[in-house]
Design goal:
0% strand; mainly alpha; single chain
Length: 249
C-alpha cells in the first residue's frame, strides 16, 4: 500500500515539474516579446494548472478504458467453453465412445485394491499366529529341558498342556496339577517368571495363578500374592535360574 502511494506521488510530482518547466519557458518567451510581468505570471499559472488538469483527466479516462478492456477480455476467456479447445475430430470420438468404456477400467483397479488389502490382512494375521506358535514351541522345549529329571512322563506332557492353556489365555479350569520332586519353591517361582517373560501376554498375577494351579501340591501353603512377589527372588540361585532371553531355545 505504501509503495503504491509513493508511486502516485512520484508520477504526479514529475508531471507537475514538467508543467512548471513549460510555464516558465512560456513566461520567459512572453517577457522577451514585451509583455508585462503580470501577464507573464498569469500565463505561467494558467499553463501549469492546465497541464496538471489535462494529465489528471487523461489518467482517469485511460485507466477506466484499460480496466474495461481487461474485464471484457477476461470475461471472454471465462465464457469460452472447454470443448472449444478440443479439436472437432477428437470431440466427435469422445461423444461416440460409450460411457461404460470410461467407467470399466476403474473397476478392476478397485477390485485389485480390495484383494491386496485382504491379502495384507491375511499375511499379518499369519505372521502374528506364527510368532505366537514359535513362542509356545520355545516354552515347551524349555519346560521339557528343565523338568525332564523332576517329573514323570505323564506330568511332563500335562505341563506342556498347561503352558498352552496359559499361552492361549484359556480358562484355567482346564489346568491339571502335576507333582515334582527335588525342586524348591524358588525353582518353581523362577519357572513361572520365565514362562511369563517368554509370552508377556498378561500380568504376573496370571503367572502366579498358573503356578498355584499347576504345582498345587508343592505350593499348597503359599498364596498367589506371595508367589507373585517372589517370582524373581535370588535369580541366580536354585536349580532353575531366571532367563531374560529365550533366543537359545
Amino acid at each position: 500500500m505504501k509503495i503504491k502511494y509513493f508511486e502516485y506521488i512520484t508520477v504526479y510530482l514529475s508531471v507537475f515539474l514538467v508543467c512548471v518547466f513549460v510555464g516558465v519557458i512560456g513566461r520567459l518567451v512572453l517577457l522577451e516579446k514585451g509583455a508585462d510581468e503580470y501577464t507573464a505570471g498569469v500565463f505561467f499559472w494558467i499553463s501549469t494548472g492546465f497541464g496538471v488538469l489535462m494529465f489528471a483527466i487523461l489518467s482517469l479516462f485511460l485507466n477506466d478504458l484499460a480496466e474495461r478492456l481487461v474485464n471484457r477480455f477476461l470475461k471472454a476467456k471465462k465464457n469460452e467453453s472447454p470443448e472449444s479447445r478440443i479439436p472437432v475430430e477428437n470431440l466427435e470420438k469422445i461423444e461416440e465412445e460409450p460411457q461404460d468404456a470410461l467407467i470399466k477400467p476403474e473397476m478392476p483397479e478397485n477390485k485389485n485394491a480390495v484383494i491386496d488389502i485382504q491379502q495384507l490382512r491375511e499375511q499379518q494375521q499369519n505372521a502374528i499366529k506364527n510368532q505366537k506358535q514359535a513362542r509356545i514351541d520355545t516354552a515347551l522345549r524349555y519346560a521339557q529341558q528343565e523338568f525332564a529329571l523332576y517329573v514323570s512322563d505323564d506330568d511332563l506332557e500335562q505341563l506342556g498342556s498347561n503352558i498352552i492353556i496359559y499361552a492361549e489365555v484359556l480358562n484355567f479350569e482346564k489346568i491339571k496339577p502335576i507333582k515334582v520332586k527335588d525342586l524348591s519353591n524358588l525353582d518353581l517361582y523362577h519357572f513361572g517368571w520365565n514362562i511369563w517373560n517368554c509370552f508377556k501376554a498378561s500380568r504376573q498375577d496370571r503367572a502366579a495363578q498358573f503356578l498355584k494351579l499347576t504345582f498345587a501340591d508343592a505350593l499348597k501353603d503359599v498364596e498367589e500374592k506371595s508367589i507373585k512377589t517372589h517370582l524373581k527372588d535370588d535369580e541366580h540361585k536354585g536349580l532353575i535360574k531366571i532367563i531374560d532371553d529365550f533366543t537359545d531355545f
